[in-house]
Automatic annotation (TrEMBL):
Pfam families: Mut7-C, Ub-Mut7C. Transmembrane segments: none annotated. Residues 95-240 form the Mut7-C RNAse domain. It comes from the Bacteria. Residues 3-77 form the Ubiquitin Mut7-C domain. This is Twitching motility protein PilT.
Length: 250
């Protein structure tokens, strides 16, 4: 049995019951758990924890705290240059994402803004395969399932708080500081593959009547061969981008 004093900072409080938010609290654990094990018991996803201090010194997820120790947990702060080693290093920029089965709309929105957002839903790959895929590919796993983020295979992950797809998009843009990296209409919304410019004359016979004359630039998805041009969902998508991005500008 270990009695520990714990304090969680900033967004990590989202995972705690109200009585433990924003304060130091005492809690008992059976045995001599590692930091990682106690996080999982508290239902706090380890990939959201960037820095752990035990009595003021940085420790790893495998550290086993002693009786009565004080532990502090910090999330990733993109706006801070950390002086301490981080466990969950911010991934490459722009980050590549893998989305949980239930986040299909969010995946399409992220692709619409040009981000690499893989989504495996048919057939459902299952939690173990999703975690392995994200860890192996170095992708950030986006999910609303904390148990999925507790799997050891996951290196980078984020629990999406919002439930509505537009709010989820705004949240992810904000959380990963993506506003400066938006490159709309550069990726196929269906396949997640970058679009390639294509000469109008080569696709003229595949376009609806009148489109060829009205537009100069066309793009094609090399995977599904779908053709994109300004006007194909463009106005609707531009409105969505304006709403989401403007609503969350720093
Ligand atoms: Zn495609």
């Amino acid at each position: 049995m270990r009695t520990l004093w714990l304090r969680f900072y900033a967004s990590l409080n989202d995972f705690l019951p109200t009585r433990w938010k924003q304060r130091t609290f005492k809690v008992g654990f059976l045995g001599q758990p590692t930091v990682r094990e106690l996080l999982v018991q508290l239902n706090v996803p380890p990939p959201e924890v960037a820095l752990i201090l035990a009595e003021g010194r940085p420790v790893s997820f495998e550290y086993r705290p002693g009786e009565g120790e004080r532990l502090s947990f910090y999330p990733i702060f993109y706006c801070l240059l950390p002086s301490q080693p981080l466990h969950t290093l911010p991934p490459e920029r722009p980050p590549r994402f893998l989305l949980d089965t239930h986040l299909g709309r969010l995946a399409r929105y992220l692709r619409m803004l040009g981000f690499d957002a893989e989504h495996l839903s048919d057939p459902d790959p299952g939690d173990a395969a999703l975690a392995q895929r994200a860890g192996h590919d170095g992708r950030v796993l986006l999910t609303r399932d904390r148990r999925l983020l507790a799997r050891k295979a996951v290196r980078y992950g984020y629990f999406v708080r919002a439930t509505a797809p537009r709010a989820q998009l705004a949240e992810v843009l904000d959380r990963f500081a993506l506003h400066d990296l938006i490159n709309p209409f550069s990726r196929c919304m269906c396949c997640n593959v970058p679009l390639r410019p294509v000469a109008a004359e080569t696709v003229a016979d595949q376009l609806p009547p009148g489109i060829r004359a009205q537009h100069a630039e066309f793009y094609r998805c090399p995977a599904c061969q779908r053709i994109y041009w300004e006007g194909s969902h463009h106005a609707r998508m531009q409105r969505l981008i304006d709403q989401v991005v403007r609503g969350n500008s720093c």
